[in-house]
Amino acid sequence: MLALHGALSRNMMRATRRFSSSSIVTLAFRGGLPQNAMLARALRATRRAFSSSSIVTTEITDGVATITLNAPERLNAMTVEMGEAFEAAVGELREMPPTELRAAILTGAGRAFSAGGDLDWLLERHRDSPTNNAKIMRDFYGRFLSLRTLEVPIVAAINGPAIGAGFAVACACDLRVAAPDAKVGITFVGLGLPPGMGSTHWLPSIVGPQRANELILTGEVVDGAEAARRGLVLRAAEDPVAEANELAATIAAQAPLAVRAAVRAARLVQEEGLEAALRREADSQAAAYGSADLAEGVAALKERRAPAFAGV
């Protein structure tokens, strides 16, 4: 866990430096601004400069940050650019004291939470080398899993499809609520890939090894109501963002230092073995990217047909 946090912290330091000249993160503060006036002015300037073309937005109300994946035209598919924006946003939130940040919500803009990895980016990996892909995947995971370095409870508000890596990131949150008809699943094998983004670590700890194996090996997709029945999410709600806000507000009303300590303690247990799992997943995916099955899986998804995997 310490190795993971060290790697994530180094990634966030690089991302924060990029953030100063980037145009892909919005920070909009409502309610209490940071106490440092110079920083407050800088954050207001950032909001004005970046609000028109951001792919990750962060808004803070009454001590609760809402991080939104904001590429609705492609169902919030995950790219390197989005990952860098996400990591930069997390880095900014990490600097906030407990008096100003008490909980966080992760959701998606439009009709999806996240459709998972961007298909064109996956095809780029198909043309790259396994050695290079292993490093790329470890970095890719780290950018999105940087949310675990926020020392406040994180609630995933699954407003629509959360598929593959998209659902894996939701599983990395401390709590999850979903719309009853939101489709969720760890669907990597149906694309020609072994699981990634910590899927093989998160799922067994959430639903147990047998249920996790069923979801991972079949690529089954279930709706939010069924996900709640199976314990994949805390509950289903017609308005998951409102439900997440209500839950976050209840948490925010508790003693902030005690809550942060509880989060740290819980994650120490939850993250045991995570670093090794991420390495295994990155290496496994890197080896699979060059396969004909991966190319077929992506083509079939784009063409909306069943894949014909040959095992090569």
UniProtKB/TrEMBL annotation:
<dbReference type="InterPro" id="IPR001753">
    <property type="entry name" value="Enoyl-CoA_hydra/iso"/>
</dbReference>
<protein>
    <submittedName>
        <fullName>Enoyl-CoA hydratase</fullName>
    </submittedName>
</protein>
<dbReference type="InterPro" id="IPR029045">
    <property type="entry name" value="ClpP/crotonase-like_dom_sf"/>
</dbReference>
<dbReference type="Pfam" id="PF00378">
    <property type="entry name" value="ECH_1"/>
</dbReference>
